[in-house]
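Sample pair:
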Amino acid sequence: MTTFKVRAGSVIGQAHHQSWRNCQDKYRLATYHYEGRAYLSGLVCDGCSEADHSEVGAALLAEYGVMELGRLLQAGHGVKELPVQLYGRCLTFISILCDQLVGTGAESLARKEQIANYWLTTVVGFVIGEVESVIFVAGDGFTLVNDTLQDHQAGPAPRYMAYDLLDEPGQHRTAGFEVLELATASIERLAVWTDGFQPDLLPELARLGRGSRALQRQLNIWANQKKLSDDTTGILVEREVVGHEDQA
């Protein structure tokens, strides 16, 4: 597999500092090796600011997501199949945990309240295989492919997947992840970000050091400069230059 350099980082937003709220962003990274093939995946999750405990759902979905992607690959699913499979399994995961906590009544007010308080979270992720790659989005956030940054905010409210578990038809129901399929050979740079990222800061990413903590340090600098009002979390993947030595 082509070698990629991966950096990730997360900081609490200025508005969250001022209101004494937790950081509601979480991320996870994973690599897998099955049948002689290598894969790289990453997820960023951003809990709803208005929910009481959305950082819990964000952390659990990020952890579950990268583990389930590995299981799906091991079971023989191709890279392009992963978003559809993962979306359904994430909903099942949320539903099972809700049932364990508040009971199995689909119409239960307590169940709906638990979903609203814990599980309204954006999921933005990717899987890079040796030949094929995918990016998938449910909710808001940003994705970057080479020099193209895309804002996935659609309409006045994010498309949280957990809305599919609320027994209320209407505008929030979704048809799964928004998916972008890529040839791995076309990827020079790829990133997934929560919506707290400021697009005007994008040029500064090209000037990051090569160290594994370079992105986190840059996020810390932006936070100290009060350039980030909301929680911000990102994973940046760049094609490795052969013979280039990392610098701290």
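DSSP finds six helices and ten strands in the chain.
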